[in-house]
Amino acid sequence: MAALRRRVLAAAAAGGGLLLGWALATGDERLYVAAVMPVLRAVPPEAAHGLALRAAACGLLPSGRPDSPILEVHVFGQRFCNPVGLAAGFDKHGEAVDGLYKMGFGFVEVGTVTPQPQEGNPKPRVFRLAEDEAVINRYGFNSHGHAAVERRLRARQQTQLRLTEAGMPLGINLGKNKSSADAAADYVAGVRTLGPLADYLVVNVSSPNTPGLRDLQGRAELHSLLTKVLAERDVLPCERKPAVLVKIAPDLSAQDKQDIASVVCEVRPGGRAVAEGAGRAHLSPPSLAELSSASMAGPAEAASCAGAVGSEERRGEERQGGHLPRRCGAPAGSWRQPAGGLGQGKAAHAAARARARAPQVGVDGLIISNTTVSRPGGLRGRQRAEPGGLSGTPLRELSTQTVRDMYALTRGRVPIVGVGGVSSGRDALEKIRAGASLVQMYTALVYRGPPAVAAVKRELEELLREQGFKSVAEAVGADHR
Ligand SMILES: Cc1cc2nc3c(=O)[nH]c(=O)nc-3n(C[C@H](O)[C@H](O)[C@H](O)COP(=O)(O)O)c2cc1C
């Protein structure tokens, strides 16, 4: 009897193993949701995340398929082969970047990285709210620090250059150390150390788990911080500088949003704010009340923010689909050399010099949003009262509304990355129609696993066609027209 039970158990385990192997190899969505993810959720959240990251680093996750041209996006002077990226926090230390691209993401964001290594908050610090398809985390920027992440990313710099060329740019998300007395110096150090390895940098001023961090979203604080960050970005010894994006919280008042819109439209490199007077009057964003009646697509209105947020040169590149590598293209060891000195042709050289003389632009984009400290009604997860930032399905509407507000306040001239509760193509398109040019996901991976990436892209493509859009760009901000 005991022998029979052992044989039945062994057969069941073998069958389960085969099923799991099949799911892992093929990336079958239903098998992942029904079999793989529940097994992984039997493991405590932080340990499960560690396993997933290791699997990605070893290339054990299913590969994505080539993307349809309808999904291609041109933004920040970059080509993205699809608009679905991996949000910050999943690969904080840059340990599994290549495996993560293999899953089908159009871009990957590493970080948040702090200058010095730090432990973050005591464990447990991540909680699943399975009933709500949500997560609460209070990691508090556990980070290996700039030097370790720089080493790791430098070791795969050539690989990243090829990925970027193929339409899969890399973002690096910057933060500050908990004990730092000078937040701006921490971000500036991040620009200097990690900027040369990034296609875009993120000034993360919205994580709820570092005391005082979100105060940096205030008008004066943000203006001062971004002025310093942009000044540092502009002196990076790269032919093409990384774009600078600001990641904001979803828990902002109407006044906060107006202030942020003003700052991202105003801040110019080298500490020069846009002059007072006529220009300034044009730049001040409308109030939220004005927005409800205003059309955001009119050329006269659109001009109001255009001078501040993007040179026509760059916008032209984006429109024409032109693509120039942003990152320092120098091989490891000589990366401080401008790429123009690396034996390019004369024409490319002259073009690089012309670009260097052209006026630099300010903030390149917004990432909306980080996790929320609010607790929307109706949460069912037992651990819903744990302190920290809430992500996943219950964040979706709040973050989409913030995308909508910021798109309107910036007159659609500041590209937006929409993040928060994206788990389907419908969610992605909702954010795109509200004003996002790209989207990111994190929490959906906890519940649906890697196949969620392919599913979001497939559904998004179907919906774009159904709604008569020929490209993602055509759908951006469609709800405002
Ligand atoms: C466990 C966890 C850790 C995170 N860590 C970071 C981080 O280090 N930096 C950051 O900017 N955002 C971080 N985020 C926020 C995500 O990047 C994203 O903005 C948020 O989770 C909303 O997206 P989602 O609903 O798809 O998860 C984290 C989110 C989670 C769930």
UniProtKB/TrEMBL annotation:
Residues 71-265, 353-464 form the Dihydroorotate dehydrogenase catalytic domain. Its EC number is 1.3.5.2. Belongs to the dihydroorotate dehydrogenase family. Type 2 subfamily. Residues 276-295, 307-343 are annotated as: Disordered. It comes from the Eukaryota. The keyword Membrane applies. Gene3D superfamilies: Aldolase class I. Catalyzes the conversion of dihydroorotate to orotate with quinone as electron acceptor. Required for UMP biosynthesis via de novo pathway. This is Dihydroorotate dehydrogenase (quinone), mitochondrial. It is found in: Membrane; Mitochondrion inner membrane. Keywords: Flavoprotein, FMN, Membrane, Mitochondrion, Mitochondrion inner membrane, Oxidoreductase. It is an enzyme of class 1 (oxidoreductase). NCBIfam families: pyrD_sub2. Its cofactor is FMN. The keyword Oxidoreductase applies. Pathway: Pyrimidine metabolism; UMP biosynthesis via de novo pathway; orotate from (S)-dihydroorotate (quinone route): step 1/1. It is a single-pass membrane protein. Pfam families: DHO_dh (PF01180). It catalyses: (S)-dihydroorotate + a quinone = orotate + a quinol. Binds 1 FMN per subunit. PROSITE patterns: DHODEHASE_1, DHODEHASE_2. The gene is DHODH. Residues 311-321 have a biased composition (Basic and acidic residues).
